[in-house]
């Protein structure tokens, strides 16, 4: 046994199995595996995650055994390990294989203003951040444009990384996920794509409504979702509508979302809009009189983005004119913006 070149043996076995399964199956389940050792007539094989382990044990166990026998007349039992069982991944391995988090460090729970319009969503997000995959999995945040969905779901990722720097967290929009998949298919790198996203501890997908009508991407997302869920990893999704209201989204995906918690965010009330403006002025280290804040909050009702845009415009206008911020200046700066 000791004289066997494991790497060469495994490559020969893979070549045999590649001819016996479909290309997508091979790239998804077999290509990313590697042998660890042979001991007591048992070969230990490293796989990406628990879902892959379970799949190989139930679907491909005999296929692998027969391939090893054909490749080197080797009769062994099989044992599958992944990074959380058996040998742990080193910090350098984690950093080299994990995609960029894409998280905006400004999006934290501390900078998120809680009001009656978003209290449930905030409470759910905070609970998930504190105990990933233990409560509300998946978590689906829905609401209109500019209401703070992106802020809240990224706050989960930032909180998780602050408390566990080794966690594998990825935030990506559904559009970027789609484009990355298209490029992976074009460049024959689908196995690498799958391994990247199916090995996350927390996967955050924004603007899920973008997947409507994109059957190939929906299928890939569905299998990614299943892999993560079965491995007890956290999935967080945001969209402009509740799952059943999203057009052309596969029923199987909607069913997965509905198996967790769906929390919506409504437009902010006056008190919340006022607090959002005060917090933003504080973050910009700019003094904005209370009557100006109230004036802005009275004029812009629909979403947070409009509020912050109006305040930014006033601050810039005052800076250009080298004037203090007053109600008259605010009125002049916002001419043409009222809805």
Automatic annotation (TrEMBL):
SUPFAM superfamilies: P-loop containing nucleoside triphosphate hydrolases
GO biological process entries: DNA replication initiation; regulation of DNA replication
Keyword ATP-binding: yes
GO terms, molecular function: ATP binding; DNA replication origin binding; lipid binding
InterPro entries: AAA+_ATPase (IPR003593), Chromosome_initiator_DnaA (IPR001957), Chromosome_initiator_DnaA-like (IPR020591), DnaA_dom (IPR013317), DnaA_N_dom (IPR024633), DnaA_N_sf (IPR038454), P-loop_NTPase (IPR027417)
Assigned GO CC terms: plasma membrane
Domain AAA+ ATPase: 135-287
CDD domains noted in UniProt: AAA (cd00009)
Any Pfam family matching the protein: Bac_DnaA
Keyword ATP-binding: yes
Keywords noted in UniProt: ATP-binding, Cytoplasm, DNA replication, DNA-binding, Lipid-binding, Nucleotide-binding
Annotated NCBIfam families: DnaA (TIGR00362)
Protein family: Belongs to the DnaA family.
Record protein name field: Chromosomal replication initiator protein DnaA
Organism, scientific name: Thermincola potens (strain JR)
């Amino acid at each position: 046994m000791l004289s066997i070149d494991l790497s060469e043996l495994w490559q020969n076995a893979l070549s045999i199995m590649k001819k016996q399964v479909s290309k997508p199956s091979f790239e998804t389940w077999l290509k990313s595996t590697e042998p660890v050792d042979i001991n007591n007539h048992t070969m230990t094989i490293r796989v990406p995650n628990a879902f892959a382990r379970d799949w190989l044990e139930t679907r491909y166990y005999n296929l692998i055994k027969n391939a090893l026998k054909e490749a080197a007349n080797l009769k062994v039992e099989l044992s599958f390990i992944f990074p959380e069982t058996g040998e742990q991944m080193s910090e350098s391995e984690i950093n080299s294989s994990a995609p960029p988090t894409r998280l905006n460090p400004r999006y934290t729970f501390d900078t998120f203003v809680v009001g009656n319009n978003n209290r449930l969503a905030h409470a759910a997000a905070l609970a998930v951040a504190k105990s990933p995959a233990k409560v509300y999995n998946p978590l689906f945040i829905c609401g209109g444009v500019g209401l703070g969905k992106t802020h809240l779901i990224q706050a989960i990722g930032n909180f998780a990384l602050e408390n566990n720097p080794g966690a594998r967290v990825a935030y990506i929009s559904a559009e970027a996920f789609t484009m990355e998949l298209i490029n992976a298919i074009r460049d024959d790198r689908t196995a690498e794509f799958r391994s990247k996203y199916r090995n996350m501890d927390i996967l955050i997908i924004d603007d899920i409504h973008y997947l409507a009508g994109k059957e190939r991407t929906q299928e890939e997302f569905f299998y990614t979702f299943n892999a993560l869920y079965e491995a007890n990893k956290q999935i967080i999704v945001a969209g402009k509508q509740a799952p059943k209201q999203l057009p052309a989204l596969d029923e199987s995906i909607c069913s997965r979302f509905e198996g967790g918690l769906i929390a919506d965010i409504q437009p902010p009330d006056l008190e919340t809009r006022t607090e959002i403006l005060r917090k933003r002025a504080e973050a910009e280290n700019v003094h904005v009189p209370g009557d100006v804040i109230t004036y802005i909050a009275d004029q812009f009702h629909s979403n947070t983005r409009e509020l912050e845009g109006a305040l930014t415009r006033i601050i810039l206008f005052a800076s250009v004119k080298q004037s203090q911020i007053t109600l008259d200046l605010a009125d002049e700066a916002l001419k043409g913006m009222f809805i």
